[in-house]
Amino acid sequence: MNKFIVSGTPHVRSKDSIQGIMRDVLIALTPAALMGIYVFGLNALVIMVISIASAIFFEFLYQKLMKKPVTITDLSAAVTGLLLAMNMPSGAPYWMPIVGSAFAIIIAKQLFGGLGQNFINPALAARAFLLASYPTAMTTWPAASHAVVDTASSASQAVDAVTVATPLALLKAGSITTVTSSDMINAFVGTVGGCIGETSAIALIIGGIYLIVRHVISWRIPVIYIATVFVLTAAIGRNGVRVPHYEILVGGLMLGAFFMATDYASSPVTPKGQIIMALGCGLLTTLIRIFGGYPEGVSYSILIMNLCVPLIDRFTEPKIFGAPEVKKA
Amino acid sequence: MGNPITIIKNGILNENPTFKQVIGMCPTLAVTSSAINGIGMGLSTAAVLICSNLFISILRKVIPDTVRIPCFIVVIATFVTIIQFLLQAYLPDLNASLGLYIPLIVVNCLILARAESFASKNSPIDSIFDGIGMGLGFTIALGVIGLVREFIGAGTLFGATVLPEAFPRTLLFVMAPGAFFTLGCLMALLNYFSNKKKA
After folding, report:
1. In A, which residues are within 8 Å of B170 by CB distance?
2. Which among A44, A178, A236, A245 has the fewest CB atoms less than 10 Å away?
3. Which tops the pLDDT comparison, A114 or A152?
4. Do residues B97 and B37 lie in contact, with contact meaning Cβ atoms separated by under 8 Å?
5. SS3 A163
6. pLDDT of A326
7. B110 and B72 in contact (C-beta within 8 Å)?
8. How many CB atoms lie within 10 A of CB B90?
9. DSSP string, A26-84
10. Within an 8 Å CB–CB cutoff, is residue A94 touching chain B?
11. A133 touches chain B (CB under 8 A)
12. What pLDDT is stored for residue A159 in this prediction?
């Protein structure tokens, strides 16, 4: 009976680790990444590899220079790099993912204290940085190949078009008046113009469901976010066209809702807070898409809501059971 | 105080208005999109600062304590008006690009802070040197920020193209966020070196 082990709390530990969670995110992103390569060709793969490698390199470099423990094996830099690449057009010049990764890792993440301390999503911050700095390169969309269903527009693209307009830009310009079932299939599978990792709704949904099943993310932010956009676009419509079922499939909504808005460090902790964040993202996305200057508003709406997270957390802080009510001064 | 060199050095280095005291942020962030603009703004502010320091110091015994701020503002506004007329007459291009920020020198907290904390307590000669030091510190800071932003954002230095045409311009740096990034990074760099010196 001499086997008493004396130790401090906690005595029961979860098996979750940062590395495990990040590995799950990478696995969940794989289908969409593969679809990106399939649709946009090897250039998409090159962009992804450069982006991931440089993200890991900059994390290593910063931590070495600052004499901090090097944490590149926790895979969080790899996730940031992959997410950044998936937020870029496949025709981007090769130095762009390097500049973007440097911005994401050094400025948005490490300068604020590293993993868990970043107040905005590093990959999205880098996307916003690139979009503001190099607007032409970031909005030139190489045409998608392998269209599942040939539509009139995809057939003409196959012949001569090298770059295309994204479905959201077409919606904005009012050149889409009806959405046919083949449009829906192309948007669902991902054979439309757009960023490398955002076009394939089905692959992103599969990855998102994997994350929810693995309890890496909660269903609240993605489901409520997408539902809000659906309801609002159905209610408002644009140019007299109401195609909410098409609007939620195109653009970065699926990628943003499942993988960006759910970032632990930059999303609310409480369930109530997550609902507020998702509603806010949905509202802002719809407003930017329909009334704003840019065709797509997912990245900016998530960044803006990231900034509101400390406030949301403060207002939704659960009441401690049995604690006396705090009198307001 | 007393030694002019100490006072000037204090303004440029130890108590640099931009990097150490972090005052006068509005013009610092708003007009430093190019080196010329930054230096122009810095020199205009310095000119106002030197004159207002001198006059406030001369008048320090006759200004009633209870209404000193309005008195300071009247003195400062006089010199700002003079500077603006001079810029309009002789440097119309600079005046156009600085625009609203020239009249706003009146409420630049750097000038009011020096009037309040230095000129109203020290002799006119010392106050002139304080104005020179602080003004130069401000000018150098704005010039450096403008230089960095112009180089990265537009690929030019003082308007002359230095980066090859093919080299990508990071437009963000000539936009508002670039001012914050540049200021933050320069401040961190300066603190790094001054901490190293102390250690």
Report:
1. 99, 133-134
2. A178
3. A114
4. yes
5. strand
6. 65
7. no
8. 9
9. HHHHHHHHHHHHHHH-HHHHHHHHHHHHHHHHHHHHHHHHTT----GGGSHHHHHHHHH
10. no
11. yes
12. 43
